[in-house]
Amino acid sequence: MIYQIPWIYTPARTVLAIWHQLTKTPIPELANCSVLMRERSRVEETIHAIQRAGAGSLQVIADFDMTLTRFAHNGKRVPTTHNTLDSQLLINEDCTRKMRKLLSIYYPIEIDASLSVEEKLPLMVEWWTKVHELLIQQRIRKDMLAQAVKESSAMLRDGYKVFFERLAEQQVPLLIFSAGVGDVLEEVIRQNHVFHPNVHIVSNYMDFDQTGVLQAFKGQLIHTFNKREGALSHAAGLRELQGRPNVLLLGDSLGDLTMADGVAEPQNVLTIGFLNDQVEERKESYVNSFDIVLVKDETMDVPNAILRHITS
Questions:
Q1: Which among 63, 252, 291, 301 is annotated as catalytic?
Q2: Is 63 a catalytic residue?
Q3: Is 86 designated active site?
């Protein structure tokens, strides 16, 4: 299509407005009914700046549970990596009951918009610690994890294959920063055939003894609201992330916004938040915090469209 603009007879302000309209980011997915943006012009400018810099300057940082994985399917919750361990192959009924009770107590606290991060922090540590202690008591066998994942209803978001494969093709590093269980996370990605060399994972990993039985969890505990510390300590050690100051960040919690804090001298950071639950209660805080908010969207359509535009 050729645009004919009467430049001579058009006031300067009008010319600029028309030019912006013609050159704005052509990503129709941003007009989806599930998309909320506080400042669309800033989103478009950031995307355009990342595109100009090229794929070689980009890294993607993403949460896993309820971000790369679906929140629900056919009206039923999709299990997180911790919930995937709720299998008769791995734990007994008493452990299942106790883990579900902990979920009913602490998950509402995690997503409570009326509580500050400072108020939530000790309770999140308490929750994760109790769950890990229960799992250790079950003496989970490493050789049973793959089968447990296979039999579970764990599910990546629609469009995940395009997402993972485009990043791999463009050699864009994908840093998955998860408060879940790294061993399960890896198995989910592996069984979906998208565990490419550009994927790097920071998570809570199980420590198995010489007989392959769970005896502890390795390193510092990672939970929803302490990802900044983990980002600072881990990102600097990944050589693949050096010299990539532009970031596409995906998360489902306000705590995920700190995952990019380990990026050295960031230039353009575009944040996408999946608002999966308690939409009305949390919508305002998400729109004020993330650049793009996806409301009850179980797909990767918007991230894929942005990546397609940036890397084309």
A1: 63
A2: yes
A3: no
